[in-house]
Amino acid sequence: MRNIKVLTGNWAAAYGAKLARIDFVSAYPITPQTSVIEKLAEFIDKGELKAKMVRVESEHSAMAAVIGAAAVGARAFTATSAQGLFYMYEMVWWAAGARLPIVMGIVTRALAPPWSIWTDHADFLALRDSGWILLFARNAQEILDTIIQAYRIAEDEEVMLPVAVGWDAFIASHTAEPVDVPEQEIVDEYLPRKKAFSHMLDVDNPFSLGNLAFPDSYMEYRWLIDRAMNAAHKAIVEADREFGELFGRSYGGLIEKYRCEDANVVIVMMGASSGDGMDAVDALRDRGYKIGLCRIRAVRPFPVKELREVARTVDAVLVLDRAVSFGIGGTLGSEVKAALYPLKEKPLVFDFIAGLGGRDVDARLIERLALRVYDVLDGKTEVEEVEWVDINPEVVKA
Amino acid sequence: MGDRSRYRYIAPVALPTPGALGKTGAWRVLKPVIDYNRCTKCLICWLYCPEGSITVEEGRPNIDYEYCKGCGVCANECPVKAIRMVREE
């Protein structure tokens, strides 16, 4: 029997963490993340979750506290957003370097200034080089499911890396949807208790973790993270497949493919607006366009193999970017281009930057951009390699 | 977990070894000196020393000058001001 609850994305995250039987939570409030931690505090208060909640004075300390908890073998969780994430940035790298299987929720929010509390993906994507596994969910159900999957992936013996699970501010974080909350017993079967690991701190056999490495060994520890990231590729696919077998839902591993089979144009995007992207695909398919969509679910490890397989047979890839790397183009677009470059027969890649600071990315916008790509393929028009969508001339005029 | 030496470490760990970085006492500019007439043997200095350079011998603190970096935390924490920081000769 299904247990359907109406949950916001943030509450779904809290349910996911509770079902994962976390032992430890530490977080500092920041809009729009706050209700994740509020819900967890409520679970602990009611005795529904046996976990230690540590209140801290900053995000830097929040991450330091989960590092300490994870280092002694606790299943640790935190959540943050935008400026909060950047305040903990130093410790974020520390968590990955010390190979601690922490899970963190990131409710994506545009960075200041100018101040914004609405979504874009700049904060989440800034973790690309940190050694964290980066997963992005689309809706409340996937947030809950991905947090449970994230512990499976993080604690895999071949992986042992922290995992960040992202979701869009407000669009996903504060929109209530019906969510199937899995049975605790089945989650326990899927996610057994965390096992001891070799670099776990132990008072009876003391050693220091994360200490100095001289130039003769520093590089090797970085190489080990890269090897673990490759292992994470397989772990993500398997965690998602086995989740599907037990719960009847899965998300395609590193990418979710939608109507890509015979497509000649494929949209690549990430996050909540991918649903609008799928609506745009349906509308265009109805009009005879052979278009599909690849939703990026894992940014690290990047789905290089999967994207190449899709791109091999298409004429153009339309990347819809909700983040920019100033001076080169869209962040996701740059990654997609890097992934596809080694292909002998490369599709054209169009990189559209849209939806920064919470501006709506709806099906009509995506449809319009897709039609422009078809016009380029037909030789009717041209677009720039990287294009900022719908810049308002009134705002930028000198 | 028993003997850890048999494990393969994927993270940078170090077993506690005195002087893994050499004789760090050479880094010192100011030297803490304990006045044992004032010392109450509360061992707060031993607890606070970030380098483990204070040991307890016969119930009273003893500074290992081979490794003490001279940070002054002990002198600052001593509730009876029994530790003075003096310039190295």
Write a structural description:
The complex is a heterodimer of chains A (398) and B (89). Chain A is of the alpha/beta class and 398 residues long. Chain A has two domains: 4-247, Rossmann fold (3-Layer(aba) Sandwich), CATH 3.40.50; 255-397, Rossmann fold (3-Layer(aba) Sandwich). Chain A has helices spanning 9-19, 34-45, 59-71, 82-87, 89-97, 122-125, 140-154, 184-190, 218-247, 274-286, 304-311, 331-340, 363-377, 393-396, and strands at 4-7, 24-27, 52-55, 76-80, 103-108, 133-136, 163-168, 177-180, 208-209, 255-258, 265-269, 291-296, 298-300, 316-321, 324-325, 329-330, 348-353, 386-388. A seven-stranded mixed beta sheet of chain A has the order 3-2-4-5-7-6-13, with helices on both faces. Chain A has a six-stranded mixed beta sheet with strand order 10-12-11-14-17-18, sandwiched between helices. Chain A is globular and about 70 Å long. The model of chain A has no long low-confidence stretch (mean pLDDT 97). Chain B is of the alpha+beta class. Chain B has a single domain (25-87), classed as 2-Layer Sandwich (Alpha-Beta Plaits). Helix content of chain B is 11%, strand content 22%. Chain B has two helices and five strands. Chain B has helices at 44-48, 73-77, and strands spanning 13-14, 30-34, 54-57, 60-63, 83-87. In chain B, the strands form two sheets. Chain B has a two-stranded antiparallel ribbon with strand order 2-5. Chain B is globular and about 50 Å long. The relative contact order of chain B is 0.27. The model of chain B has no long low-confidence stretch (mean pLDDT 89). Chains A and B meet through strand 9 and helix 9 of A and strand 1 of B.
